[in-house]
């Protein structure tokens, strides 16, 4: 049962991801990106990572995709008009992608992966384990991430805000 | 191939690898800078899926895989905000959104 669910989600993920990169209309691509990210959240639920699934929906679909749609709408010339793929780059892009796939396939074949289903965890609460890690062993990276987000916030204001002063 | 066999780590890793390659294809082939950023989000998600699956399928599963995915999400959000801000600033100044037309710093 779980296997069938996995294959259904995997197929949905690959189809929507394919549409994100091939869709002629950038707005449709953004909507397919939301679908792909939602399927990834469903895969997190299958892996027992409920907190991460919630974060995925809130941050990625709620913030990143919405932000992308905002910028698409602000750069209005492309909305509606089909966004042409750079045709001459399709073959090199497919080549780069295929070579990356070869690299990963070799790495996968060479590594000894644990076979069989996921080990039974006896209903461990991953969310509280995550919280203990964040405020325990990993407190310094956690604080550094907050500095990174603050720096990104200030930089975004500096980049977009400066332009307006020049127009006056 | 038995469709009802239990899902193993290899299933997740192959799926993440395929997603990664689709993202790489999109990042190289897209002309629109916003499209490139969206393809990069797919790449980040492939990496996150690898982290979470690897953490779950360890002989003694722990939350560190999820923790790394959480940091990647934070970094990806910062990247996305800055990338879109730069695209918007360039668009206001020069009315271009195609990556190959943003050649002001090239010469």
Give a brief description.
Chain A is mainly alpha-helical and 168 residues long. Helix content of chain A is 75%, strand content 0%.
> Uncertain runs of chain B with pLDDT below 50, 5 residues or more?
none
Question: How many beta strands in the DSSP annotation of chain B?
Answer: 0
Separate helix tally of chain A: 6
Alpha-carbon distance between the two ends of chain A: 63 Å
Helix proportion of residues of chain A, in percent? over 70%
- What is the averaged pLDDT score of chain A? 84
| Number of E strands of chain A | 0
- Return the structural class of chain B: mainly alpha
General shape of chain A: globular
Helix and strand run of chain A: HHHHHH
The main pleated sheet of chain B reads as: none
Q: Strand share of the residues of chain B?
A: under 5%
Give a quick account of the main beta sheet of chain A: strands, pairing sense, barrel closure. none
Q: Pairing-aware structural class of the strands and helices of chain A?
A: mainly alpha
């Amino acid at each position: 049962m779980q296997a069938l669910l996995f294959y259904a989600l995997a197929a949905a993920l690959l189809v929507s991801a394919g549409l994100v990169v091939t869709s002629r209309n950038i707005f449709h691509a953004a909507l397919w990106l939301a679908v792909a990210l939602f399927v990834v959240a469903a895969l997190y639920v299958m892996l027992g990572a409920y907190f991460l699934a919630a974060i995925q929906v809130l941050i990625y679909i709620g913030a990143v995709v919405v932000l992308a749609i905002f910028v698409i709408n602000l750069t209005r010339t492309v909305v509606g008009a089909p966004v042409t793929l750079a045709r001459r780059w399709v073959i090199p892009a497919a080549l780069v992608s295929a070579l990356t796939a070869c690299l990963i396939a070799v790495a996968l074949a060479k590594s000894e992966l644990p076979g069989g289903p996921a080990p039974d965890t006896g209903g461990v609460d991953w969310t509280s384990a995550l919280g203990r890690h964040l405020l325990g062993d990993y407190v310094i990276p956690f604080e550094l991430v907050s500095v990174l987000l603050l720096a990104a916030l200030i930089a975004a204001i500096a980049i977009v805000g400066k332009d307006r002063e020049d127009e006056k | 191939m038995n469709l009802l066999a239990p899902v193993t780590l290899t299933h997740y890793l192959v799926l993440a690898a395929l997603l990664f390659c689709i993202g790489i294809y999109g990042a190289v082939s897209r002309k629109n800078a916003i499209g490139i950023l969206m393809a990069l989000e797919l790449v980040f998600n492939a990496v996150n899926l690898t982290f979470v699956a690897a953490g779950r399928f360890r002989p003694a599963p722990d939350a560190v895989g999820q923790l790394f995915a959480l940091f990647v999400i934070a970094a990806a959000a910062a990247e996305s905000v800055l990338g879109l801000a730069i695209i918007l600033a360039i668009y206001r100044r020069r009315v271009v959104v195609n990556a190959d037309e943003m050649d002001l710093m090239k010469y």
